[in-house]
UniProtKB/TrEMBL annotation:
PANTHER family: LONG CHAIN ACYL-COA SYNTHETASE 8 (PTHR43272:SF92), LONG-CHAIN-FATTY-ACID--COA LIGASE (PTHR43272). This is AMP-dependent synthetase and ligase family protein. GO terms for molecular function: long-chain fatty acid-CoA ligase activity. Residues 130-545 form the AMP-dependent synthetase/ligase domain. It holds the Pfam family AMP-binding. It comes from Artemisia annua. The lineage of its organism: Eukaryota, Viridiplantae, Streptophyta, Embryophyta, Tracheophyta.
Length: 724
């Protein structure tokens, strides 16, 4: 992905995340004394309180219908949860009731633009820099009025309530207002990623026969380029921005600004046309790892049940919480998170991946990023972002060196013992000391008040989870869900410090393991049952739009009428009822000598190398070894080259050098060994790719998952050379 001036970044990303190792200066004598005290005191305390932690049961077996397997439910609730409170059965009802309950409390916040400037890069390109002011807030009551006006305006505009509206935009407050406005007239919303390619955009709009398109003003050019291919669009509503361009040459459509539609509705209100629980609220087009995206049909009941379930997991969530919104709202993870926040009466502050921190790409030097200004208590993230946070911290610490590095390493190890529960004394006095000396500065990068983080979209590496837990000082709730389960499947709990797991089933769903004989994953396996993960319950969606064949392939209805979704993921249940995802059916390849290799498992292990920004493993049934395409972490690799005295013209030149390939390959081999991979699972040959893989290039999804088939097609010649 590139920003408006071509600055290369991945999306979603934090840009150049400042992990600030400036927690220590040379004036650290007092800190050293505190360090001695911090180490000695817990020695006594931990010996006094040491003992084996009792296993807390989080999931329990349950008898359910459908295919034979081992099913689990959340221990909190014998019956599945479908609503947060009585009467909130649809998104429209939930929103209206929450707005009335919290009418005076601040709801949606957006930063005001103070100044836009441009700076020249080393290659003479211009890069946009923003100076943003404080968040401007609207209350729940004010937002409800805007939603009601917008809903009436849609009808005044001529939109037929029996047709669909598509939202094609980056995340912002108006996105959510438009979304909720549609439900006041029982209009189904089609969500489309802002980074989706032209073919996928045309496919999504034509397949759903959307008659109204709501989009960013900056995306109008993209829409204009495909206007001749859009068969059903009649109205275009654009979100105003500070740099709205002239709106010309974009088809024979009626063009209106978002505020104009609101004003029309305010002047001429229309009676509401509210949905029922079974009505389809959203057709969400997945970014798709293969082919054209599929539209997942989510009912109002699906979305509400997921929100109700997550409300039981996040401790003490309520109006005092502030949520940082910056991930794509067209992705079920962010959408579900924001619905949870409005259910709880929390505040939502909108930012972007490129303005998130003080050192993000688009933030003017010396001004505050979104997190510093907002000081959120809750935040969602995807593993790729947390990996960058970790890498940023490590980089800063390495740059500091000396006593600062030693202090950080000692502090990290001591706090890690506390998080693991094996050093009880480290939670008291020592915790306060380490926070003051080391971690306070690091935590300030995300505002300093984070108390809980939600992570989803892809597996989170155990090392990253521990690192973030220690440095940010907040538990990470790692979730497991799919668009097809409306994000509602499993969620780890705040007091669970284990890593690599995704927690017990959410209270809105059952999770069943079904034996996969061909792959050798059986529910009878010891010490833990294994099998394909199948999700059943209120969060399981209605199927794929206009694709009955694919729907029937992966959705099943049991004898009791419950819907089940077959995920294709392989999992195992731990003794406490928590789920761990260990493989994926589509990612398993048999090599020439009969060994099975799991591409995803190996890629996750290789990603722990400091040189890896992204990696795709490739295995061929006609060979005895595997190979890999690696996108290196540019700054880390360039620093290595400088320290090794290797000269290079540009990054592509560096990636092509034998010494560079050898250095990265050695690092991958070590990562594979640390993960206890077999020799055949370690890539025998690698190719370094100088250009990052981004959603815009079509090589990864919006959640930064690999689009394996597209990567194989684009780099077909490179893969052939590796096998030559």
């Amino acid at each position: 992905m590139a920003d408006s001036e071509g600055s290369p970044v991945s999306a979603p990303t934090t840009g150049q995340m400042d992990a600030s190792g400036s927690f220590l200066t040379d004036k650290s004598y007092g800190a050293a004394i505190a360090l001695i005290i911090a180490i000695v005191v817990p020695l006594v305390l931990s010996s006094m309180f040491a003992g084996k932690k009792k296993l807390k049961q989080r999931g329990v077996p349950v008898q359910v219908g459908g295919e034979a397997g081992l099913a689990m439910r959340n221990v909190r609730s014998e019956k599945l949860v479908d609503v947060p409170w009585e009467g909130a059965t649809t998104m429209a009802a939930l929103f209206e009731q929450s707005c009335k309950k919290h009418s005076q409390h601040r709801f949606l916040g957006t930063r005001k633009l103070i100044e836009r400037s441009f700076v020249s890069g080393s290659d003479e390109r211009k890069f946009e820099k923003l100076h943003l002011g404080e968040f401007q807030w609207e209350t729940y009551g004010q937002v409800f009025e805007r939603v009601s006006h917008f809903a009436s305006g849609l009808i005044q505009l001529g939109h037929d309530p029996d047709t669909r509206i598509a939202i094609f935009s980056d995340t912002r407050a108006e996105w959510l207002i438009a979304f909720e406005g549609c439900f006041r007239q029982n209009i189904t919303v089609v969500t489309i990623y802002a980074s989706l390619g032209d073919d996928a955009l045309v496919h999504s709009l034509n397949e759903t026969k959307a008659s109204t398109l709501i989009c960013d003003s900056k995306l109008l050019k993209k829409v204009a380029a495909v206007s001749s291919s859009l068969k059903t669009v009649e109205n275009v509503i654009y979100f105003e921005s500070d740099n709205t361009e002239a709106l010309t040459n974009i088809g024979d459509w009626k063009i209106s600004s978002f505020l104009e539609v609101e004003k029309m509705g305010q002047e001429t209100p229309v009676p509401v046309r509210l949905p029922i629980k079974k009505d389809v609220a959203v057709i969400m087009y997945t970014s798709g790892s293969t082919g054209l995206p599929k539209g997942v049909m989510m009912t109002h009941g699906n979305i509400v049940s997921t929100a109700a379930a997550v409300m039981t997991v996040i401790p003490n969530i309520g109006p005092n919480d502030v949520y940082m919104a910056y991930l794509p709202l067209a992705h079920i993870f962010e959408l579900a998170a924001e619905v949870v926040m409005l259910t709880a009466g929390s505040s939502i502050g909108y930012g972007s991946a490129l303005t998130l921190t003080d050192t993000s790409n688009k933030i003017k030097k010396g001004t505050m990023g979104d997190a510093s200004m907002l000081k959120p208590t809750l935040m969602a993230s995807v593993p790729a972002i947390l990996d960058r946070v970790r890498d940023g911290v490590v980089k800063k610490v390495e740059e500091k060196g000396g006593l600062a590095k030693k202090l950080f390493n000692i502090a990290f190890q001591r706090r890690l013992l506390a998080v693991d529960g094996s050093w009880l004394g480290a939670w008291g006095l020592e915790k306060l000391l380490w926070d003051a000396i080391v971690f306070k500065k690091i935590r300030s990068v995300l505002g300093g008040d984070i108390r809980f983080m939600l992570c989803g979209g892809a597996p989170l590496a155990p090392d990253t989870q521990k690192f973030i837990n220690v440095c940010v000082g907040a538990p990470i709730g790692q979730g497991y869900g799919l668009t097809e389960t409306c994000a509602g499947a499993a969620f780890s709990e705040a007091d669970d410090n284990s890593v690599g797991r995704v927690g017990p089933p959410l209270p809105c769903a059952y999770i069943k393991l079904v034996s996969w004989d061909e792959g050798g994953y059986l529910t009878s396996d010891k010490p833990m049952p294994r099998g394909e993960v199948v999700v059943g319950g209120y969060s399981v969606t209605a199927g794929y739009f206009n694709n009955e064949e694919k729907t029937n392939e992966v959705y099943k209805v049991d004898e009791n009428g419950m819907r089940w979704f077959y995920t294709g993921d392989i999992g195992r249940f731990h003794p406490d009822g928590c789920l761990e995802i260990i493989d994926r059916k589509k990612d398993i390849v048999k090599l020439q000598h009969g060994e099975y290799i799991s591409l995803g498992k190996v890629e996750a292990a290789l990603a722990s190398s400091k040189y890896v920004e992204n990696v795709m493993l490739h295995a061929d049934p006609f060979h005895t070894y595997c190979v890999a395409l690696v996108v290196p972490a540019r700054q880390v690799l360039e620093q290595w080259a400088q320290s090794a005295g290797i000269s290079f013209n540009d990054f592509a030149d560096l990636c092509g050098k034998k010494e560079t390939v050898s250095e990265v390959q050695q690092s991958l081999a070590k990562a594979a060994k640390d993960a206890k991979l077999d020799k055949f699972e370690t890539p025998a040959k690698i190719k370094l790719m100088a250009d990052p893989w981004t959603p815009e290039s079509g090589l990864v999804t919006a959640a930064l998952k690999l689009k394996r088939e597209q990567l194989k097609a684009k780099f077909k010649d490179d893969l052939l050379q590796l096998y030559a």
